Amino acid sequence: MKVSEYFLKPRKDLPSDAMLISHKLMIKSSMIKQTTSGIYAWLPLGLKVLKKIENIIRLVHDRYGCQEVLMPTIQSSSIWKKSGRYNDYGPEMLKFQDRNKKELLYGPTNEELITEIFKEYISSYKDLPKNLYQIQWKFRDEIRPRYGVMRCREFLMKDNYSFDLTKKDAEKSYENMFKCYLEIFKEIGIKVIPVKADPGAIGGDLSHEFHLISDSGDTNILYDKKLGDINMLDIVSSFNLLRNLYSVTDDEYKKKPGLDENKLIKTKGIEIGHIFYFGTKYSEKLGAYVLDEKGEKNNIEMGSYGIGISRLVAAVIESSHDDKGIIWPKSISPFDIGLINLNIKNKDLKKLSNDIYDYLKKNSIDVLYDNTSERPGEKFANMDLIGLPFQIILGEKCLKEKCFELKNRKTNKTNKIIKIKNINEILKKI
């Protein structure tokens, strides 16, 4: 994509309430536009990141035997009254009446609705287990929405739900999703620590939060030093270690201290995922059961699993940036590489830039080509702000020396010795 054609207008002015670095950088790089308090439009650059995260989530969930559905954002309040959770979310749950005076609501979560759907179609133990997931926008009427998309009123979530005959089977499903989450975050390229957590309004007796390690995190977490770097472990080893090693939020540690703090790593994290096992809490109240091999009714054992996708975008920025801008992991970067022509008026340089641009596209490299007439300093600043993993820089010196500069955004180091005829080397690097 050429910058001259792309919907990309980096901003220098910032809203007065932009406090977090992720909020500032997402506004500056024209990833998002606030439309009203706590609600944002996602512009092309930001939407590409969302879609890349969605794609990783879908691919991994499919590998783990999950099936995608799509539920409505609006639900009948009656099923929430049946479950006994009608008042649990208080004013955060937006309620309204249709023209027939029937009360409806924007579902802040979907345990009730998915249970209603399940019981209409599944009646035999032979059809179990099942695991259904969706990627859908949700709405919660936050009292003080702030921090950009980190804490807003409308947000994109992945939520899924497991259905099993017995508690033992449900715990296997929980373990399966635990591993699924470790694999998702590893493929994204971020360091995440799972910690034991309070299930909150969802309920149940087994729950883990997944926290992205970040100095700007809003939660203190403590975990056993023996864990080491989770991303260096295979998924099975990671799960077995985490199941047996101590890892909690600061709040949970204070309730029931575990290990001596000297044996723990204490850091900050941003919650980006949460998983729950809650047994028959919803199936009993909503009448979701199957017949076992003896023909007896068994209430379904359930679990739910969520990832805040839009929140994850901001969390990644909080953990991966510098004073110049964003530094994207390669897996979710909006483009693979940036191409900068420092002098668009030079015909030879323009031809060289266009040739490299076409070559990269033919080799399935998603490239953002700055072909504008902006000054070099402005081009460098904008490309650093956007945070693509690599930049190819072409100036008039490149014509004389028949080479180009390759900048690694993470290290900010520039390689000036790559010859144009060896451009295949760039493909290996990205």
Structure write-up:
The chain is of the alpha+beta class and 430 residues long. The chain folds into 2 domains: 21-322, BirA Bifunctional Protein, domain 2; 335-429, Anticodon-binding domain (Rossmann fold, 3-Layer(aba) Sandwich), CATH 3.40.50.800. 33% of the residues lie in helices and 29% in strands. The chain is built from 13 helices and 23 strands. The protein has helices at 21-28, 44-63, 77-83, 111-121, 167-188, 235-244, 250-255, 281-286, 309-319, 347-362, 376-386, 396-401, 424-429, and strands spanning 32-36, 39-42, 67-68, 74-76, 95-97, 103-106, 130-139, 154-164, 192-196, 206-213, 219-224, 247-249, 264-279, 289-291, 297-299, 301-308, 321-322, 325-326, 337-341, 367-370, 390-394, 403-408, 413-419. A hairpin with a 5-residue loop joins β5 (95-97) and β6 (103-106). α1 (21-28) packs across α9, α2 (44-63) packs across α5 and α5 (167-188) packs across α6 (235-244).
What's the domain count? 2
Mean pLDDT: 90
Helix segment tally: 13
Q: What is the terminal separation in angstroms?
A: 17 Å
Strand count, sense and barrel status of the largest sheet are: 9 strands, mixed
- Strand % is 25-35%
Using only C-alpha atoms, the radius of gyration works out to 25 Å
Q: Say which CATH homologous superfamily of the largest domain is assigned.
A: Bira Bifunctional Protein, Domain 2
CATH topology name of the largest domain, in short, is: BirA Bifunctional Protein, domain 2
Helix content: 25-40%
Look at the helices and sheets and give the structural class.
alpha+beta
Supply the CATH architecture of the largest domain: 2-Layer Sandwich
Give the uncertain stretches in residue-range form.
none
Kindly provide the name of the CATH class of the largest domain: Alpha Beta
Q: Rough shape?
A: elongated
